[in-house]
What does this fold into?
Amino acid sequence: MNLSKRARTTSPGDTAPADDTLQYTFASRQTASAIPKYVIPNNGEPAAVAAQLIRDERMLDRNPRMNLASFVTTWMEPECEALIKEALNVNFVDMEQYPSCTEIQNRCVAILADLYHAEDLGAKAVGTGAIGSSEAIMLCTLSMKMKWQQRMRAAGKDPSGLKPNLIMGHNVQVCWEKATRYFEIEDRFVHLEEGKYTLTPADVAPLVDENTIGVAVILGSTYNGEFDDIAGVAKELDALQERTGLDVPMHVDAASGGFIAPFSYPDLVWDFKIPRVVSINVSGHKYGLVYPGLGWAIWRNAEALAESLVFHTNYLGSDQPSITLNFSKGASAIIAQYYMLVRLGRDGYTRIMANLRIVADHFEQALVRMGHFKILSKKVGVPLVAFSLTDHPLGHKRMYDEFQLSDKLKESGWVLPAYTMAPNAEHVKLLRAVIREDMSRALMDHLIDDIKRAIEYLDHHLSITPKQLQEYEADVIEGLVKKPPFGRRLAPSKSFKGVC
Ligand SMILES: Cc1ncc(COP(=O)(O)O)c(C=O)c1O
It folds into this structure.
């Protein structure tokens, strides 16, 4: 390839000498030129150079394994990575050409339906793979809306002039707000308040009317990992039905909890064991332990799924229902999920979830011992630790908050997000560490040390000790008494440890 000619025609401003004989990435003219950002370049680049330039851009990102903001898988076994790579060029939707992928999806659906105690099982299990829980939730919401329309028509009412509504807690993930807005459904929120971060059974019934398409409950809040009282909500809705005849379905958003509860809390009643639960979503790419790009929607039975959501194909010689928002998609994630189910089995998932809880508890205890934090997550829930700063144990006035602590930790490479609670409790600031499979206790000990160091630093530079505060106050008072308030510096001359 003649780099010197291309250099002349494509980059007039390029001053680096080109050398045809030197095939060396950082000796190429491209590494001394601006990277194309907004317009496709006329000519291409050698593969190694293009790859290096892009790798360099990516190098500035954070290390995914140190990103404790995310629930999404950041480590998989090399054997599964090989399977993923082998299927990278497979479009899942070409069912006739790649029947094994469809079969594998159906097996995953059946396994999840069985795990969640659905009514239709085995080859009859009803569900689909999706890009994530968000797509799965969109599909389940649409199904609930269509079922409500059917119910209204059956009751002799025209649903077209009516506004359907969905009840949910303010602790929902943003995908629920998207679902209601995209599909023209009124969102009826149960409000939260300080100390109450889930929807509680008593909240729900007062919001229900005949246009309620369903109640969305969460098995693992994004905010603090807590599970809604799903059985309790169902009980309240049973009582409501007895009183009013309104029969309101429930959907369980088990994005995180769907791969935790069956293994860590097998006695918890949250799934299709509750007759009112019509559908469940779960993210394969969270505690399903698969890399990003996979969610699942599972319905109780064929009747629970709105027929008009389903497109039928018979590429495989038998009826293959297709329920997705998108058409083409990769097959790798679905194959990876099947690998994980076969590879780990119940025992493997149970052991991993138990380890995560041990590491989460270890972290929680270390935070409590530091004396600076209060814990906002629960023992039963997603293995994450959500925590806030307390009043300073030595009575310092903190001039920093959770956001500054989060920023400080970034310097050691950790992404420990700070955020505010859901509406009505948004004055509560917190930090959250999601414990994923690849967070060993050894790695956690490094995080603990880095948090201690960060607090020491912030205390030193951004807090005022009681003694300093006293001196400052005395100084100010003295200044006001002895000298006229104007024309004098009110701040004391000695330097404070930080801002004042
Ligand atoms: C409770 C809950 N629901 C839904 C979602 C959206 O899931 P996904 O990222 O798989 O689309 C999340 C993501 O964090 C979540 O925590």
Q: What stands out?
A: Residues 71, 132-134, 173, 175, 218, 220, 222, 253, 255-256, 283, 295 surround pyridoxal-5'-phosphate (CB under 6 Å). The longest helix spans residues 332-370.
